[in-house]
Amino acid sequence: MSATGNDAAAAAAPPRGVRTVAVEVATALLLGGLGAAAIWDSRRLGAGWGAEGPQSGYFPFWIGLVLAAASLGNLALALRAARRGVKGGGGLFVTWPQLRLVLSVLLPTAIYVAAIPFTGLYLASALLVAWFMMRLGGFRWWSAAPAGLATALVAFVVFETWFLVALPKGPIETWLGY
Amino acid sequence: MEEIGLLMQGFAVALQPDNILLMLLGVTLGVLIGVLPGLGGANGIAILLPLTFAMPPVSAIIMLSCIYWGALFGGAITSILFNIPGEPWSVATTFDGYPMAQQGRAGEALTAAFTASFVGAFIAVVLLTFLAPLVAGFALQFGPPQFFAVMFLSFACFIGLGRGSPLKTLAAMMLGFLLATVGMDTVTGQLRMTFGSTEMIRGFDFLVAVIGLFGISEILVSIEDGLTFKGQKARIDLKVVLRTWAEMPRHWAIALRSAAIGCWMGITPAGATPASFMSYGVARRLSRHGDEFGKGRVEGVIAPETAAHAAGTSALLPMLALGVPGSPTAAVLLGGLIMWGLQPGPMLFVEQKEFVWGLIASMYLGNVAGLLVVLVAVPWFAAILRVPFAIIAAIILVVCAIGAFTVSNAEFDIVLMLAFGVVGYVLKKLDYPLAPLVLALVLGDRTEEAFRQSLLLSQGDLGVFFSTWLGGSIMATGIALAAWPLLGWLWSLLRPAAGRERPSPA
């Protein structure tokens, strides 16, 4: 064990980030929790044999039970790998710089999704495209803004007029008479 | 042969001008989807599915299945030119395809890949043409216990034949089944697993899940590697194509073997991805030039591409004949059948002859169309990846959001899509397989229905699944497959000495 520790220390500045073991354990716990919730809910509905055959909870009960059991197994495997140290489970799930990149996509997308009920899909999409181009692509506003606008317009023509599918609209579309 | 006559009628359907146009449109869209990261066969079709409600089912499935063929072709382009597998099943194509492109043999590699794909798909379609009606005829005698047995076997295949951890496969699968039960129970009308939330009553639509799990998560995974693509130039002229074609017959043995592997892996729901890896491995082991694999052997492109296409195509066989899809994309197409009001399963071959044979005929034509489109248009498709990732990613996110919304015109579904995206990102990075999750989500209701009906028939006796020799033997095979990893584990416990003899990584 100590030998592997020295090896890791010898490597120049190993990348830092979220450890795989932590995410493995969290995922197993979460899935196990879902299984437990399913068991609980199925027991409430009745997981046995009713007047008209299997009750509503019969199938989900067993599914929940197997999910909980499999998650326990995954938890045990993850913890065993962790105890073995660097060799088995010391890998990184994601390094900090990688996580920063992922969040630079995920956070604007979350805001985009949250904004759609208020601004409508078209305005939000135009803003998302422009934001991505400026923040991640290094474009100036005078190329990003028309690109965002063009995306929204193309989407509008394709869906509202071509396929006749109504997408969420906001105050601007109402003001324009749609 | 009755099949030939029916197939000819199918060609008459598929060759209507409208359908030919849809075929070309589908293939072109499909290649585009295959080239772009974050859009693939499964979620590309999931996004477009709601737009096909107004079409006749035959036209809709022709377009959507052609998107599937196109996506299979498209994956090869990015693998060879950019060393980025556009689709999971084209990972093995990068091993030799990218070195060939670096040596300036991109045209040769691409031509070989496309031709091999075509050959693989063609063999699988011929198999499907003659085998699917047989299987369907056989399955007409199935009752609920036998159907449950077939579904049990498909899911057991994931555990027994999958490459990853069996416990993770099991957990992913159960998560899918659990998500499928959320909402109203159609038998008793009770609400299950909604925990008092009104949004949950509708349950989880698998299309939304597919868009998130395969689309959003793919964007998140690919952003980790940075924001730029570096690619090789592609030029295909007629001379290169003809020269490569002249050399292709030499590799007939590899092509046949890979097609056989692909067909087998496609019918059992192991899927195109393991088929391509397995076929690459077998080709390397059996080749006299095995050492040169990975440095730009054309066989290393032919083997995985043939197998991936054969698997992708034959995955439709159990979908059509039994209503049990062999891959996530086939599962999405199956979801389409249900939405267009068709009942998947063996009765399709009896009640919807025009639909089934139109689809099968379109598989022949779609692959010809696909081959032509990719050979002509490779440089344009490759040029798409020169568009900065920031723009592509944003547009894909918008397209995914629109796709998720249009499934049932619900804004909440866009939130669910994003949640599934994050879940997919985590599961993918931890090697939880997503295919069994999606298949369980699609088949959950029908699996449960078959299970309940069987138990009703037998008044609660689980022995009903073993009451006929057919159902019993399918169940027994399934149990054996599911228990396979467990047996291996017990074996290693019983013989600890054998475990220690394994070479430890020094």
Give a topology summary.
The complex is a heterodimer of chains A (178) and B (506).
Chain A: H1 2-10, E1 17-19, H2 20-45, E2 49-50, E3 53-54, H3 58-83, H4 86-89, E4 92-95, H5 96-119, H6 121-135, H7 141-162, H8 171-176
Chain B: H1 2-14, H2 17-35, H3 41-48, H4 57-82, H5 91-102, H6 106-139, H7 144-161, H8 166-181, E1 183-184, E2 191-192, H9 206-223, H10 238-247, H11 252-267, H12 272-286, H13 299-314, H14 316-322, H15 328-339, H16 348-351, H17 353-384, H18 389-408, H19 412-429, H20 435-458, H21 469-494, H22 496-501
Antiparallel strand pairs in B: 1-2
By DSSP, the count of extended strands of chain A is: 4
Could you tell me the radius of gyration of chain B in angstroms? 22 Å
Distance from first to last alpha carbon of chain B: 61 Å
Query: What is the total tally of β strands of chain B?
Result: 2
The order of strands across the largest sheet of chain B is 1-2
Strand order of the largest sheet of chain A: 1-4
Question: H/E element string of chain A?
Answer: HEHEEHHEHHHH
The helix tally of chain B amounts to 22
Structural class assignment of chain B: mainly alpha
Q: What proportion of the residues of chain B form beta strands (DSSP E)?
A: under 5%
Largest sheet of chain B: 2 strands, antiparallel
Organism (chain A): uncultured Acetobacteraceae bacterium
Domain DUF1468 (chain A): 28-168
Keywords (chain A): Membrane, Transmembrane, Transmembrane helix
InterPro entries (chain A): DUF1468
What features would you describe in this structure?
Chain B: InterPro entries: DUF112_TM. Chain B: This is Tripartite tricarboxylate transporter TctA family. The complex is a heterodimer of chains A (178) and B (506). Chain A is mostly helical. Chain A has eight helices and four strands; from the N terminus they run H-E-H-E-E-H-H-E-H-H-H-H. In chain A, the strands form two sheets. A two-stranded antiparallel sheet of chain A has the order 1-4. In chain A, strands 2-3 form a two-stranded antiparallel sheet. In chain A, helix 5 runs antiparallel to helix 6 (121-135). By secondary structure, chain B is mainly alpha-helical. Chain B has one domain (2-485). Helix content of chain B is 73%, strand content 1%. In chain B, helix 4 runs antiparallel to helix 13, helix 9 (206-223) crosses helix 19 (412-429) and helix 15 (328-339) crosses helix 20. The chains are: A mainly alpha (178), B mainly alpha (506).
